[in-house]
Amino acid sequence: MRPPRAGLFTGCYDTSFGPMLLLENTDASVMGSYVHNDGELLGRVEGQALLFRWREKDTGVTGSGYFLPTARDAGAGGFGGAGGVIGRWGYGDSYDDGGGWNGTKLSSDPEGCR
Asked: Which of 5, 18, 21 lies closest to 113, judged by CA?
């Protein structure tokens, strides 16, 4: 049985690669999906970063990446008021040779993602 969903990264995002859904579990594991080339990611929260492996099912291309949470506004208290993610992605084992991957959190409720 999978641990219940919880955590800062859980939610729906509008990202540089289209809509994305992330589900963070109580054991710090994260799974997600994104529209671009029918992508999926699996990762783990380490400190304040989400480190992940991604795979595009349509192309078979794989890689690694990371996200850091961003604050909604200057008064949100930094990481405590996450309003999105900023990160990088890479091919294979590289976390950054592909470019930036950023997103705005649209909802913290994964049931509301469409």
From this structure: 21
Amino acid identity for residue 82 in this structure? A
Question: What CATH code is carried by the domain that includes residue 58?
Answer: 2.40.128
Q: By three-state DSSP, how is residue 104 classified?
A: strand
- Has residue 77 been placed in a domain? yes
**What tokens does 91 get?**
């091919």
Instruction: Report residue 54 as tokens.
Output: 């991604």
Distance of alpha carbon 85 from alpha carbon 22, whole angstroms: 11
pLDDT, tens digit, 9 for 90 and up, residues 70-104: 976 434 444 444 589 999 999 999 999 999 999 99
Q: What residue numbers bound the domain in which 55 lies?
A: 11-105
Distance of CA 49 to the CA centre of its chain: 10
Integer Cα distance of 2 and 113 in angstroms: 20
Q: Give domain status of residue 112, yes or no.
A: no
Q: What is the average pLDDT across 39-43?
A: 98
What's the pLDDT score for residue 90? Answer: 98
pTM: 0.85
